[in-house]
Amino acid sequence: AFASSVVLPVNQGTDIVNWDEVFWGLYAQTKGLIPKGTAEFYFLGDNANTDSQNNVGTVQRGNSPRDIYTLGTHLKSVPGALNGWDYDVELAGQLGQFQYPRGTPVVVNGKKLDQTSYAMHFEGGYTLTNAWAKPRFGLIFNQASGDDDPLDEKHETFVNLFPTNHKFYGAMDFFSWQNMREIAATSTWYPVGKLKATLNFHVFWLQTTEDFSYNATQAARTTGGYGIRPNNSSGFGQELDLILSYPIRKFGAIEGGFGHFFTGDYVDESLANTGGTHDANWCYVQLNLAF
Questions:
Q1: What is d(CA 23, CA 100) in angstroms, rounded to the nearest whole number?
Q2: Where do the domains of the chain lie?
Q3: Contact at 8 Å (CB) between 227 and 105?
Q4: ∠ at Cα 104 (8, 156), nearest 5°?
């Protein structure tokens, strides 16, 4: 069990503790429920009052009022127990109440709604342990509900809570686990010594165009042509990522990556009257130190 208050980062100053929002939960794990696998179960609560949004950090403010309860399970194989095969499954559902933050378009601004949402993750892979570079090939399917009727009394967009979306939905950070569907093909290689190469290809759709699209920080895209676009196509785009990493003795690793995003019909149609679109490229190099 745990209970925590959310901290809002402040550049060149003391971070702000948002005492008006509490994130808490219960967590259990067992290895005896499924053969050669681990089962995890969790119940999470996210409770923010009306003063939460008055706590403002450098790049974000406190969440809008909400009482959201998430019940979920996570099933995964024990590493090396399935003769090269592996799997990872997560299912989650949410109930409670949600209020859109201030500044959201007027169609939903300030509404207090009943929360009913879900999300799912399925992944399977196979590792050729005796082949050159010991490659692992995998397939992933992710889906998270969106709100298909902004005028009713329900908020059906899955709330991604406090995630690490960068790790899961493309390195370029265009998506969070909200109003989305994704199919991804992944591969991991060790071509030379400890050098690790990861090549992933992601395809993204919106679950419904009656809802916003959401970036990796969970912020709804509401400006520059974006918004609720029910007549748009649902295809958001595709992303290709290549990441290389190499450990440096015992104290860290050097890592670099390149990503290319191919815009889909939803993006093209949303921005058609604001100058159009073009594909995006992104690269980085970083040094990770452990101490």
A1: 18
A2: 2-289
A3: yes
A4: 90
- DSSP string for residues in 258-281: EEEEEE-HHHHHHTTTTT----EE
Tell me the C-alpha distance between 195 and 134, whole Å. 12
pTM over 0.70: yes
The token pair at 164 is: 């690490």
Pick among 2.40.160.60, 2.40.160.100, 3.90.226.10, 3.40.50.800: CATH of 2-289: 2.40.160.100
For 55, other C-beta atoms within 10 Å of its C-beta total 20
Mean pLDDT on 252-276: 94
- Of the spans 56-65, 78-87, 147-156, which averages the highest pLDDT? 78-87
Strands 154-155 and 136-144: unpaired
* pLDDT at residue 105 in the model: 64
Q: CB of 189 within 8 A of CB of 135?
A: yes
- How many residues does this entry show for the chain? 291
User: pLDDT confidence of 223, banded at 50, 70, 90?
Assistant: confident
Tokens, residue 77: 């194989």
Q: Residue 72: which H helix or E strand, with range?
A: strand 66-77
Query: Residue 39 in contact with residue 73, Cβ under 8 Å?
Result: yes
Say yes or no to pLDDT of 109 above 90.
no
With pLDDT > 90 as the criterion, what percentage of the chain qualifies? 70
